[in-house]
Amino acid sequence: MLGLNKHDMKMLLIVAALAMLAPFLLNPFPTDSAMAQFNAGYPDLMQRFVIFGIFAIGFNILFGLTGYLSFGHAAFLGVGSYSTVWMFKLLDYNIVPGIILSVIVAGLFAVVIGYVSLRRSGIYFSILTLAFAQMSFNLAYSVLTPITNGETGLQVYTSDPQYLIDDWETVPHLFGLVEMRSTYTMELGAWSFDFNAGYYLCAVLMVLMFYLSIRIFRSPFGMMLRAVKSNQTRMNYTGLNAKPYTLAAFVISGMYAGLAGGLLASMDPLAGAERMQWTASGEVVLMTILGGAGTLIGPVVGAGFIKYFENIFSKINENVLHEWFGFLPDGLENAVVWVVEHFVGSGWHLTLGVLFMMVVIFLPGGLVEGGQRIMRMLRGKKSDNDAEKTTQSTPAE
Amino acid sequence: MGILEVKNVNKRFGGLQALGDVNLSVEENSVHAIIGPNGAGKSTLLNVLIGKLIPDTGSVMFDGQSVLGRKPFEICQMGISRVFQTPEIFGDLTVLENMMIPIFAKRDGAFRMHAVESTANEKEIIEQAEHMLESLNMADQRHDHSASMSRGNKRRLEIGMCLSQNPRLLLLDEPTAGMARADTNNTIDLLKQIKDERDITIAIIEHDMHVVFSLAERITVLAQGSPLVEDTPDKIRGHPKVREAYLGESA
Amino acid sequence: MDAVILQILNGLDKGSAYALIALGLTLIFGTLGVVNFAHGALFMIGAFCAVSLSKILNLSFETIDETQTDFLGNPLKVKTAYIESWFGPELGASIIDWAVPLAILFSIPIMIGIGFIMERGLIKHFYKRPHADQILVTFGLAIVMQEIIKHYYGANPIPTPAPDVFKGSFDFGTLLGFDPNVIIYPYWRLVYFAFAAVIIGTVFAFLQFTTFGMVVRAGMADRETVGLLGINIDKRFTIMFGIAAAVAGLAGVMYAPINSPNYHMGMDFLVLSFVVVVVGGMGSLPGAVAAGFLLGILESFASMNEIKSLLPGIDQIIIYVVAIIILLTRPRGLMGRKGVMED
């Protein structure tokens, strides 16, 4: 169905179901219970789950398939956000023109940056993309202030032209049908669930983007990209020019990032230069490798994992920790709290750094591979690796 | 007029004359071996043939067109396929996928997007690839991870990938280097079979005399960057100059 | 003319920092084949060595001086640094004053230690892994290091003054026959430049004239052959990593008075230093140094008002623009060797 095989279809359906039921799934604890702090089902966070999911899915098309590690993808995210806010400023609060423009502008940026950066590979490519992103960031902060509003960040003012605005428009909406921030809250006993229009828009788009990425992965084009990663020499001597393929992958993933940026601005009509900083680029790299680069579902898992823990970890403070570890003897309690508090609250970045290292060191295949390993162990199947070890012979020169 | 014509090729690296006045003509549908002791300039010549090195003087024509300065993918599109000393295959892909890529490339040219067309639906391509694998006796391994195969099988696959594009000239660079005897013999048999079944020119650069004398119809002996003699295997075997320059050292 | 000289001088101190960091990056890259994204963090830790030493030297105890009262009428509390009470007020005060230069001695063992631990504990497991993995793991390490520093020293820059003697400026112009006050240059920046020159010279001399250096250079050219000679190259490479860490650390120590250290200064410098390495040519030590100074000076020229009015924003991006042009026209950088990191 839809040009997918059974396995891929199943995966698509699971992702779609998870996305649609997220308001329930992410709020498993009653509102007043102590565990409610682990709920993640509020609109703002759910929107970020799926938006960064789109960002990571796109990044994976480049990094996962071709192996080109871009350290500058946040630039496309930022460009996307600026484009959308400009559409709000010039036309009106309808998000469609903004999102379309953000994809187009990010795509154009990606063509230029990709065309130049892809003339080199390996670490040179990483540094070139990093240089471009830092350049965009620096420019957004300085000379381009008329376009980006510098440090303050771009936002919509009442003095903006907004040529198509109607009186009732005050926040981003979709053709006037529904406002992005409108939320229906369902009370069910002790539980409450939020259904937010903006979230569902993003979720539908994410499922679509996920579908597109499956199609790309399974297409001849996707096979060529994997061939680029595997062996460029053979690729060339097979009569194929690797560059157009990699450039196409770069532009596609740039457009995904632009879409994500556009959606971020559609949910909250702001855009700031910090969205383009290289730490933001590092974050999407982390999401992708944490989930599993080159796997279909990995980036979605990685994005959800990081955004969830970022949110939960940032909320935990010393008092909460003392509550948790209250059952321990006092001395031990203080010691444990002292250690743990470095990693929570404002220490979230420390956790992120440690996580980064742990994943690269112990789980190069990411969570998806880790999950598969556990599944295999449970089923008692022999690992595929055995075959590889026996037949490797070393070339003699 | 041969299909591959090398005329007056000279190449110097600093003070070293790597190739001096190389003239070579490879007849269409023949098996032509280029042999020579280490440092005779075999690799340099090969790199000139595939356009990777541009010689200081001279020309290299394939079927009347110059190959000099062309990119690898353009050379391949002209009809020259190359087999490497260390098998170059797509190690991360399955054997079947390895075989599909050159077929796609042949069908679609250097760059055509099929970004949403599922490979699974490409029945025609898959059939061709499976057919090719069967003729290589590799059908059973089609879903194996290609990096995990033996060197002999990697070589087989690589040759198969080249053949699937119906090249007019197959260039082999020491195709049996680092192989066990059994794998070497299998490779020789495969190349003989190819020679018998197809209209194809094979140029082979080789160290192993066993391979050369089992396959070649003509042999060029290279010594110190220049061709010493060119003749049939029988004549080469008895040639005094060759014995002196080449066979002499191992005898 | 005077403006040109002034800009060259202004570019020297930043250029020195770029050159020192790039030198360390290249040493690590050339010897170990590892792309170290945590190198900027080592620079930052160096700067915080200076901060720490100055804090330690300023540790004081309080005494109550009954003879004086503060504005509320209470007896005045007098803070005396331990150093001053141990060495007497004058010597003590000048030791505190010289905290930053003293931190050089203080930081060398710390930086070499950190370098050893990093190489033995982490980096050595990544020699055979793809460059992407090396980038990712050292990037993670860099975040960890800067977050730890942020935790203990806070997010704000910490002013760390140079010794009083170097606080003034030097009228360079009068030396060259210009009018007074045309080319004014702070003493400390001159010191920094001289210091960088000495360090760079020492590293080059070390590599050129010692057997250790010879082996390392041979290892940079062809690791396997050197290994085959029965020389324990790994141990030497560990030491090289320690030296590279120390060079970055020293660059940081001395930079503290120029720019008050903050926890993210390492990242800021790292990106630029990588660009410097690429421009100089991956694996080329002279290239790294030359490109460091070149880009430092170019950056300083780009921030001249005359140029900024011509090309607004050029000061923000000049280094990147140069790097992009160089990479596209001379893929190996200014002095890169063939075969070193071709992709």
UniProtKB/TrEMBL annotation, chain A:
Alphabetized UniProt keyword annotations: Cell membrane, Membrane, Transmembrane, Transmembrane helix
One Pfam family linked to the record: BPD_transp_2
Record-level Gene Ontology MF annotations: branched-chain amino acid transmembrane transporter activity
Transmembrane segments: 46-63, 94-116, 123-144, 197-217, 244-264, 284-309, 346-368
Topology in membrane: Multi-pass membrane protein
Gene Ontology annotations for the cellular component aspect, listed alphabetically: plasma membrane
Major location category of this protein: membrane
UniProt key word Cell cycle: no
Subcellular localization(s) per the UniProt record: Cell membrane
Name of the molecule in the record: Leucine/isoleucine/valine transporter permease subunit
Source organism of the structure: Roseovarius litorisediminis
TrEMBL record, chain B:
Enzyme class label: hydrolase
Cross-referenced InterPro entries: AAA+_ATPase, ABC_AA/LPS_Transport, ABC_transporter-like_ATP-bd, BCA_ABC_TP_C, P-loop_NTPase
EC number(s) reported in the record: 3.6.3.-
Domain ABC transporter positions: 4-249
Molecular function in Gene Ontology: ATP binding; ATP hydrolysis activity
Entry keyword set: ATP-binding, Hydrolase, Nucleotide-binding, Transport
Listed Pfam families: ABC_tran, BCA_ABC_TP_C
Keyword field contains Cytoplasm: no
Gene Ontology cellular component terms for the protein in this record: plasma membrane
Lineage top rank: taxon: Bacteria
PANTHER family for the chain: CONSERVED COMPONENT OF ABC TRANSPORTER FOR NATURAL AMINO ACIDS-RELATED
Protein name: Lipopolysaccharide export system ATP-binding protein LptB
Organism listed in the record: Roseovarius litorisediminis
From TrEMBL, chain C:
Name assigned to this protein: High-affinity branched-chain amino acid transport system permease protein LivH
The family this protein is said to belong to: Belongs to the binding-protein-dependent transport system permease family. LivHM subfamily.
One annotated GO biological process: amino acid transport
Subcellular location, principal: membrane
Tagged with keyword Signal: no
Encoding gene, per UniProt annotation: livH_1
Location within or outside the cell: Cell membrane
Gene Ontology cellular component list: plasma membrane
